Amino acid sequence: MTERLATTPFGGGRMTARVFAMQKRVFETQARLAAEAGGNETGTAEKWQLLRALTEARVHYGLSDRTIAVLEALLTFHPEKVLDGRAPIVVFPSNAELSVRSRGMAPATLRRHLALLMAAGMLLRRDSPNGKRYCRRDERGVVEEAFGFDLAPLALMASDIHQQAERARAEAKRHQALRAEVTLHLRDVAKIIEAALAEGRPGAWVEHQIALVAVSGRLSRKASSEALGERKAALVTLRRQVEEDYLNSLTNEEMSANDFQDERHIQNSNADPTFEINGKESTQAEPAAQESSPTRKGVAVSLKRVLAACPEIGSYAKDGLATWADLIKAAALVRSMLGISPDAYAKARAAMGDGAASVVVAAILERSDQIRSPGGYLRELTRKAEAGQFSVLPMIKALE
């Protein structure tokens, strides 16, 4: 069989310059590989790995999933696992059998997808004199000549297909990361605005809400990376403005970074240390607990009003909160849970009185998701109380 037998299509099929150029390229590549002048290229590829790579890179080649399914069906007619493109790889299925292996695809649809594979340079037609697909074998059963579809161009494209698949994976990863970033920015901006409005903080929060609506429209599942990038850039700009406005609205107590660091150090290095007194184990919290009867400084708010504004602390009172003593007892438990050190709580009780200190702890618990450092916050309030500049009433009003 000569190398260039059956290079034109049977019947009404037209020979085009594109088909001729592709044939010439295949023949030259095969000749170069035969002369061992192909460099790193071998002209061979494991067919199922190659099909997987092509599935990932199909957009680059303009192929649909159904076109890939037709190619998969053609590959099943080649008995070898490896495609060796150094020579023609002709498969010759009947239309009926090819339709069955393509999940029952209609003949007209098959022809359309086969044409797409040939246009992509992955198939060559090797038409017989009468247009039928078949092979001739010798007396030993070895194929002497075959007419059908040549898969050699696909094998020779293996290197390029794998490179395109790698690029497609990288792009898919970048696309997924962009979509995740957009989702996170949307969530964070929305929650910051929601918190600011709930807390009554000064700022252009309504305008920020309107701007958020403008950049939070539904994105199609097939949205391009460019569209996602534009959405991300708009959200980053909005987030910067929202965070700046929120930070500007914070009080000195809420921004007290030094107190946060001091409190964290106390918690990590000396949280409720135990020591022995006359053979008994005690804690650092005991001296405060053993002070003369609890400080009787007045509380400028009723217990009923405190519990209405701070219902969360009720979950930590085993027998309910019927008296101030019950609230003080529950606050002692909650302060440990909040990470407030015994020293910080003892100083608060001394400066404010047991009742007011327990109210502060209840209020901190109520806003624990918004207060970065409960211990640092309490220390700042304690300093104000020592200077005679603190009252629990504004705190309770803010929670009502």
**Unreliable runs, pLDDT <50, ≥5 residues?**
256-296
Mean pLDDT, to the nearest integer, reads 80
SS-derived structural category? alpha+beta
**Judging from the principal axes of the Cα atoms, what is the shape?**
rod-shaped
- Alpha plus pi helix count: 17
Gyration radius, rounded: 39 Å
The arrangement of helices and strands along the chain is HEHHEEHHEEEHHHHHEEHHHHHHH
Strand content is 5-15%
Helical amount = 55-70%
Ends apart, CA distance between termini = 94 Å
Word description of this protein:
The protein is of the alpha+beta class and 400 residues long. The protein contains 17 helices and 8 strands. The protein has helices at 17-34, 47-56, 65-75, 95-101, 107-119, 152-156, 158-199, 205-214, 225-249, 257-270, 286-289, 303-309, 324-337, 342-352, 354-366, 374-386, 392-399; strands spanning 44-46, 82-84, 90-91, 124-126, 134-137, 143-150, 274-277, 280-283. The strands form 3 sheets. Strands 3, 4, 5 and 6 form a 4-stranded antiparallel sheet that branches. It has a two-stranded antiparallel ribbon with strand order 1-2. A hairpin with a 2-residue loop joins strand 7 (274-277) and strand 8. Helix 7 runs antiparallel to helix 8 (205-214) and helix 14 (342-352) packs across helix 15. The longest helix has 42 residues, at 158-199. The protein is rod-shaped, with a radius of gyration of 39 Å.
